[in-house]
Amino acid sequence: MDNNMVERPSLYDTLLKKEWSYYTGAVVIAALALALNAFSGIWGVSGPLSIWGGKVLTLFGVNADAFKGFNGSLAKYSFWGNKPSITDMGLLLGAAISTLLAAEWKIRKLKHWKQALSAIIGGLLIGFGAAIAGGCNIGGLFSQLPQFSIAGWLFLLMCFLGAWVGGKLLRFFMPPVSNKRPNRKRLTPEQRKKNKMIQIAVGAAILIIALAAGFIVSPKYPSAPAFVVIGLGLGYALQRSRFCFTAAYRDPTLTGETKVTRAFILALALSTIGFFGFHAAKYGVDLSKLTPENMPGNPVHLQMIIGSFIFGIGAVLAGGCASGTFVRVGEGYVQNVIALVFFIVGNTIGKIVVPFFKGTFLQAGGTKVYLPTLVGGLVPALLIQLAVLLGLWVLAGWWENKKKVNA
Amino acid sequence: MASGDVLVVGIDHTCAMKNVPDWARTQGYNVDIDEVGDGEWEVIIEKA
Predict the structure, then answer these.
(1) A 186-245: CB under 8 A from B
(2) Is B1 exposed, middle or buried (0-12, 13-18, 19+ CB in 10 A)?
(3) From A198, which residue of chain B is nearest by alpha-carbon distance?
(4) Is A117 in the B-facing interface, judged by CB distances under 8 Å?
């Protein structure tokens, strides 16, 4: 057991196999998301999904571009000209590369039909929820809250409540538990070594091809190489650290664990400091250059609040949020492949129906609410936001200890 | 389970590979991890 293990990890294990801590993941993910923002605006994930869904409708002879939700955007779309398309593919391939270099890639089959059902329902919910909330938990929360947008805080609250409901529903989708030790096929050391070399070679090949593709298209799409590198980096960091946005708001109420939650809060705090810098440069510390037109953030309205709640339920049932779904598809999870397909379906439906909500109570009073304008400037907003995040971090630690004592 | 009893948890989820041993260690149990195949593990937990 642990106490007797004195074997020193090899350089390979240290560099490519051993998982990072959640905090390491949080720092790297926040840094990459800020780098992306510095380069070309905030990180989002769900944006291109409805376009891919619309393209599929077009293949079936539907003139989807005529729908108000698309309004001609399908004809103009190109993969390399669309930042989130590249970073989404980067998430998927970055996670695949991370898993392959660690020699841990495999097709992770469904263990029970209930997993497929929860992936279908969860995928539809995260897709539809993200479409009506104005973004997924990346564009609507992780890239929203740090830019002092109240919509981001509301997304966090509603997504947390949704995840609590999702956790309650999850037990209906749990496969029956088996107490029998399965007869696993153990590989011989030779087979293990051979498989490891194959996996590392495939991982390295995917990395080289992805980077080369970015540079090949760069004469026409100059930003593509940067998007490829950042997308791959995000996928790699998410996989290697097992950082999971869904676990951050699911686990406190489901298992009482808050380690990922606290790392997530750290990532939000670091991003807040970064966005303080961006906003100070863009709007001035005294906000003299801020106008209603250039104000950052999503509008707050009932539709956004309902959407983030639905998203929270869906993320738990789908087994991953938006970024998590791409990462797990890269790792070979069949359940998440199913979830991704229905994520696209739900997002496309949402995109088509959202224009019908215009002028209804769902979007009534929808305005952007920017914290610095409420509290008298960027510096007070920074201090308040960091203080609240610190409070949540302390609360999360206290909660885990309390649950442990009561366990 | 009594002290000294062993629980073997079969895992093929990379997240569970991190949080199951983490959880068991914080409970003060002895933990051993056996990688039985590519991306497949058995976590052996001995009740303290």
Answers:
(1) 186-187, 192, 195-196, 199, 239, 242, 244
(2) exposed
(3) B38
(4) no
Contact by Cβ (8 Å): A234, A33? yes
- Taking the C-alpha atoms of residue A244 and residue A320, their distance in angstroms, rounded to an integer, is 8
Comparing CB atoms, the residue among A2, A184, A242 nearest residue B15 is A242
Does the beta-carbon distance from B14 to A3 stay under 8 Å?
Answer: no
How confident is the model over A112-149, as pLDDT tens digits?
Answer: 999 999 999 999 999 999 999 999 999 999 999 999 99
Chain A residues with CB inside 8 Å of B30's CB? 1-3
Cα dihedral A109, A111, A113, A116 in deg (nearest 10): -50
Q: How far apart are CA B11 and CA A62, in angstroms?
A: 44
- The candidate with the shortest Cα–Cα distance to A17, out of A180, A250, A199, A226, is A199
Predicted ipTM of the assembly: 0.85
Residue A279 CB contacts under 8 Å (≥ 6 apart), including other chains: A147, A148, A296, A372, A378
The candidate with the shortest Cα–Cα distance to A406, out of A396, A246, A398, B18, is: A398
Q: If DSSP states are collapsed to H, E and C, what string results for A106-145?
A: CCECCCCHHHHHHHHHHHHHHHHHHHHHCCCCHHHHHCCH
The candidate with the shortest Cα–Cα distance to A371, out of A353, A389, A392, is: A389
Place of tokens 């863009």: A282
Q: What distance in Å separates residue B24's CA from the closest CA in chain A?
A: 12
Q: How far is B30 from chain A (nearest CA, A)?
A: 6
User: Is residue A6 scored above 80 in pLDDT?
Assistant: no
Q: Tell me the pTM.
A: 0.93
- Amino acid residing at A190: E
Tell whether B1 is within 8 A of chain A (Cβ). Answer: no
B25 to chain A, any CB pair closer than 8 A? The answer is yes
